[in-house]
Amino acid sequence: LMRSGLQRVVGLALCLSGGHRSAATARPAQVQFTAVHWPTAGLKYAYAFDVIEDSGTRFAFFCGNQDSGVIRDSILFRAAKPNSSGHWVYSDDERVALPHSADPAAWDAEHACDPDVVASEQPGGFTLNGSRYTFALFYTGINSDNDPHGNSVGIAVANDLSGPWFRLAAPLIWGTMWWGAGQPSGVTLHNSTVLLTFTRGDSNGTRLVSTTLDLSVVDAPVVITPEFPVTTSGLATAQEK
Which DSSP symbol is given to 14? Predict the structure, then answer.
């Protein structure tokens, strides 16, 4: 599902679990829940975690605010290494992976959040502006609270999980109205083909949808499978348990 050596770790709030997914198996390994030391200064928040392990380092990407007390989302990250006891220890400093755009006219000027990172099957599988990159970061963005599109889904690329990340100037997937499109989750199927699942909210209601995209040329994506609804058939509600 991802480049060899790259593993996704399931994150829940600030309790990070060790369920892994790799190219060898789609079944999660034994899950271990661990309370993580996560110091912050001032009025800061952190949510929507995506934790990736590559070459012995874990990168926790999340949505947070750069300025204390200001509710304006950027995508931040912290890195972790295992200590002598095998527990992952995260750095105290938060670093910016992808800020909301500094250009007030940009489509993601107000918020950039909900990160999800994948890798191409082979290094350098994603091309943007003529340069080749290995990692792709999908995210939710919006220009302002009055954006007629609502939220939209963006993409940025890098050759190292610590950055720098280079974003596509326009959304990969536009919202159309109301809530829009966002909360993306991607899986590399093969080469640079990605199955992208996200939330869409419009006049037809709020639902999960998926599409398959060839992202070998990020600034000219090819739709392989048009957007289709993710079925909830067979899923029980909390009241039905």
Answer: T
